[in-house]
Amino acid sequence: MFAAEKIIFWNGHQHTEYMNHLVEAFEKKTGIEVELHQFLSPQLRDVIVNQANTEELPDMLYIPGDFVGLYKDIKLSPVPDEWVSSEIDVRVKDSGKVKGTNYGIPLFQGNHLMLFYNRSLVKQPILDWDQLPEQVATFSKQVTFPITWNYREMYWLIPFMSGFNAWPIDGEKITLNTPEMVDALNFYKQLTDDGLVDPDCDHDCSVTRFKAGQSAYMINGDWVIRDLEKTLGDDLGIAMLPEIKGKAMTPMFSSYVLAYPSLTQDIKKLALLKRFSLFAQDNQGQQIILKEAGLMPVNNKVLREQTGEQTENQLMVIKQMRATRTMPTTDKMAVAWSAMGKGFTRFMDHNYPAEKTVILMQRFADREVKRRSAIEYN
Question: Could you say which protein family the record assigns here (predicted)?
């Protein structure tokens, strides 16, 4: 393990600047050295698991909340209760828990989807999907697709599933082969058949089109707000995701968490880690996360103090956040994502009917769960 007089810290969040400043503020306040490494990779999950297999992990990680479902693979230790601020809501704390045990401390909440719109193109944002075709006639010729999002990424499918009472996980059971899922897939595909959204436009394509005024609406997450504000300024509007025939869409939310591989028993090192963890959750650390990254703090006191200063858009981000569900942290969620993606490709590119697609998704998931169980058993 590393030396006890400093903290070795790997940051896995792509927005690195605010974490640099948070670490600098902590060092200045406490005199404790933090050796910060930006640990960024498109295959972050696999890289961390591989590092754990070689026992080359740091004192502390900053990783997506659903990674805690891999607590066995990346050798995460339970977080001591006294390291977690009492100012964090229970459901936000749960984003770092697996089966009731806390393996991560969330530092911001969100990563949830919402509806962005261009005020220069849209007078009143739609409240229900039925209203979008009615608005199309009012858009200028530069609008090639009325709405855009990362269509083939399954995280974007989730709120549409929720609009039909479908959800990928029930406890520890993957639930993809359901009539509700069939309805959700058919509705989702109909939007492309009607020419409302481009099924081949990914995340970066969507952002580019929206910023250029080629789409009046975009479904995306809080991580793009700062970038959109720079381009659109006051023309940027944020609204709740539209209802599906009167039924609300419910996106997932997640967080990034501090997590501790093979937590040391060295009393001095434990004290350092506790001080950093509490600092990051307290006023100064949370203000850095809020003001520099534009991310929603987990500390309720900080959030309440900001309410009077919030813009209309910021208040809408909070409102949508309150209408989310926590992304499951079970390791079954990773299986569900993969199974949904494989089945969805057949659905879109090979003309599989939705009824056959959900059977295929469930088969992929069940087979992988069985394979993993056999490996764990052996």
Answer: Belongs to the bacterial solute-binding protein 1 family.
